[in-house]
């Protein structure tokens, strides 16, 4: 039995995992990263449009700050997020962007003077301030009041991942590639590491650590069509689920991105619409203003996806061999803009569709894109049930996204949460000893070895490939953009039947090394369990909130459902998870539940909302009209961060105001 010891173990080498590893290494902790693939191929590289941070450098971002970003994030979450976490995030995002610039990210910069942009299908000229010249630029994204999304053309994730990975390399952080973690070593109270399998040799290794951070990304590949990389199969969430102790949060909160290309499902960035692109139907009609006259194409993602689906249901989709779709029109942006700021979109259209987006409209429709749910953690990123188990990024339910994520907040979360949680992980490593219980290691290793032996030497009848296809089809058909009770019940029953069948798998390829069929067999049973947490959570939640849209329960029901779904799987032989709930306390919220600004307000209010609003009004009145926004915020909802992250963020408006003050003094 091979055992490898370290202080800080990180599972997943995307942006979130690497940023945690860097934070641990900065403290002098022995740090090690496991990855299915070379780090620079992680799914973080697929993020195109940008990263939200309230820098306020551009004329369209002037007046932006942490308060506005926080409010956009909470409203975008449909009041499902942890508001203290959203505050921590909004406060640290500008710091993360500037840190990344120091690490070599070539952010697109502001050029002083006039520039032409497209706003609401019209070309307008805006004037950038001389003082803003050379500062980090920002573009418009859905669900935001200000232009806040910092970018590097439309290859932002690629740029960030290369810079952060190069930083990790410069610090000597080892990444064990082609290693798949499949089992968490724990005693029911504390996590001690993982058992991982080498995808090349088939060797099993035990990685023992003071802290273990799961940063394996989302679970989009439980669906048939997804913008996610094929490695985003939810195995990190499944490992936590299979401890029988750790909980997953809000697994039914699954986001569908409005503009994935048809038929392959590859993403075209929200930056297309942020820069002025339009959605058109079969008649060439721009239909979003008919549904959302205020935000139009730049409504929140969950809203745009539903409006597109509604429009296709009315017969306004474009028929194709792959089903109906709509058009994304970016031709009005012009070739120069596309070839400068939307280069990846141009290449995707050329390579996968054979079209030129500067001339041709792009066939798109909503496609599974992001997982708001994940391993439930507290504000420090640690599992409340298993000490020493941390999670970060899309693998986690930290929970800054609630039931819908704003575009640009995902890429931001990877590095911001990695920055914040990385410091808490490092604190844990400094304050706790490495505990090695060889009997626990042997037990976990033995259980995984037995599972592999049964697959190789057994006489099952079920193909892992067929089970996976059936699971993905069930999720696509019954747990999609619009949901209803009868279809969700079908999904749950169908998935339970698949889980039962997965206990009788057959692997025709009997090799123990480099065996893709064995890899699939080890994953599919775990994926079905993750799918069941999504379907069961969706069936139980009889309301509509964010990306969870119930046709039979169209109202957002704050009275009965302002709560976080928690799933666990204590009985390994059970066919479905146990579900319980965690209430969101309105009386602790800085921004009590309200109207999001889309469609009609059909919310069933929480009984504490009016009380909290009145309490906030009294507190603000007591502070007086001269209290600054920092004093007001702390009075309403104090939040904590590591001390080095607490200083205020400086913005261009602060410098300009100071200059005016100097002239007047």
Automatic annotation (TrEMBL):
Protein location: Cell inner membrane
Pfam families found in the cross-reference section: FAD_binding_2 (PF00890), Succ_DH_flav_C (PF02910)
Reaction(s) this enzyme catalyzes, per UniProt: a quinone + succinate = fumarate + a quinol
Gene3D superfamilies (UniProt xref): 3.10.20.820, FAD/NAD(P)-binding domain, Fumarate reductase/succinate dehydrogenase flavoprotein-like, C-terminal domain, Succinate dehydrogenase/fumarate reductase flavoprotein, catalytic domain
Family stated for the protein in its record: Belongs to the FAD-dependent oxidoreductase 2 family. FRD/SDH subfamily.
PANTHER family given in the database record: FUMARATE REDUCTASE FLAVOPROTEIN SUBUNIT, SUCCINATE DEHYDROGENASE 2 FLAVOPROTEIN SUBUNIT
Name under which the protein is recorded: succinate dehydrogenase
């Amino acid at each position: 039995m091979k055992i490898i010891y370290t202080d800080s173990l990180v599972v997943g080498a995307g942006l979130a995992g690497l940023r945690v590893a860097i934070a641990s290494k900065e403290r002098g902790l022995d740090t090690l990263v496991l990855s299915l693939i070379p780090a620079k191929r992680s799914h973080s590289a697929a993020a195109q449009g940008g990263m939200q941070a309230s820098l306020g450098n551009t004329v369209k971002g002037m007046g932006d700050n942490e308060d506005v970003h926080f409010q956009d994030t909470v409203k975008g979450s449909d009041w499902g997020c942890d508001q203290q976490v959203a505050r921590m995030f909004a406060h640290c995002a500008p710091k993360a962007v500037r840190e990344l610039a120091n690490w070599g990210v070539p952010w697109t910069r502001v050029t002083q003077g006039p520039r032409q942009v497209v706003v609401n299908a019209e070309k307008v000229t805006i004037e950038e301030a001389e003082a803003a010249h050379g500062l980090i630029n920002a573009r418009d994204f859905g669900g935001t009041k200000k232009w806040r999304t910092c970018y590097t053309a439309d290859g932002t994730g690629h740029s960030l991942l290369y810079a952060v990975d190069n930083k990790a390399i410069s610090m000597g952080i080892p990444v064990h590639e082609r290693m798949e973690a499949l089992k968490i070593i724990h005693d029911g109270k504390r996590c001690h590491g993982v058992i991982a399998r080498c995808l090349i040799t088939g060797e099993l290794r035990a990685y023992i650590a003071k802290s273990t951070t799961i940063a394996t990304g989302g679970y989009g590949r439980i669906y048939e069509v997804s913008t996610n990389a094929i490695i985003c199969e939810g195995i990190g969430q499944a490992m936590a689920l299979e401890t029988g102790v750790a909980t997953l949060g809000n697994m039914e909160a699954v986001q569908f991105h409005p503009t994935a290309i048809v038929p392959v499902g590859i993403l075209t960035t929200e930056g297309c619409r942020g820069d002025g692109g339009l959605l058109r139907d079969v008649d060439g009609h721009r239909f979003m203003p008919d549904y959302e006259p205020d935000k139009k194409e730049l409504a929140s993602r969950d809203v745009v996806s539903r409006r597109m689906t509604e429009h296709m249901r009315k017969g306004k989709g474009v028929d194709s061999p792959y089903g109906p779709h709509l058009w994304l029109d970016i031709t009005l942006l012009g070739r120069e803009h596309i070839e400068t700021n939307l280069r990846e979109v141009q290449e995707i259209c050329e390579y996968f569709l054979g079209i030129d987006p500067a001339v041709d409209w792009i066939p798109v429709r909503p496609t599974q894109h992001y997982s708001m749910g994940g391993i439930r953690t507290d504000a420090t990123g640690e599992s409340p049930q298993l000490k020493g188990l941390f999670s970060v990024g899309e693998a986690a339910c930290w929970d800054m996204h609630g039931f819908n994520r704003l575009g640009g907040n995902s890429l931001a979360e990877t590095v911001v949460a990695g920055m914040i949680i990385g410091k808490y992980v490092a604190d844990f490593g400094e304050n706790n000893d490495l505990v090695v219980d060889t009997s626990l290691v042997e037990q976990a290793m033995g259980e995984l070895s037995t599972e592999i032996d049964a697959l190789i030497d057994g006489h099952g009848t079920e193909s892992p490939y067929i089970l996976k296809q059936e699971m993905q089809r069930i999720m696509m058909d019954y747990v999609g953009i619009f949901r209803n009770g009868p279809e969700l019940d079908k999904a749950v029953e169908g998935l339970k039947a698949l889980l039962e069948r997965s206990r009788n798998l057959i692997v025709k390829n009997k090799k123990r090394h480099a065996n893709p069929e064995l890899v699939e067999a080890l994953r599919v049973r775990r994926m079905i369990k993750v799918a069941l947490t999504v379907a069961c959570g969706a069936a139980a939640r009889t309301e509509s909130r964010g990306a969870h849209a119930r046709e039979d329960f169209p109202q957002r029901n704050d009275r009965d459902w302002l709560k976080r779904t928690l799933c666990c799987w204590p009985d390994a032989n059970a066919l479905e998870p146990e579900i319980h709930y965690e209430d969101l306390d309105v009386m602790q919220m800085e921004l009590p539940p309200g109207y999001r600004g889309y469609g009609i307000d059909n919310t069933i209010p929480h009984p504490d909302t009016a009380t909290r609003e009145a309490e906030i009004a009294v507190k603000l009145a007591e502070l007086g009209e001269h209290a600054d926004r920092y004093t007001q915020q702390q009075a309403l909802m104090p939040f904590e961060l590591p001390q080095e992250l607490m200083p205020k963020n400086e913005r261009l408006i602060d410098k300009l105001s100071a200059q005016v003050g100097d002239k007047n003094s």
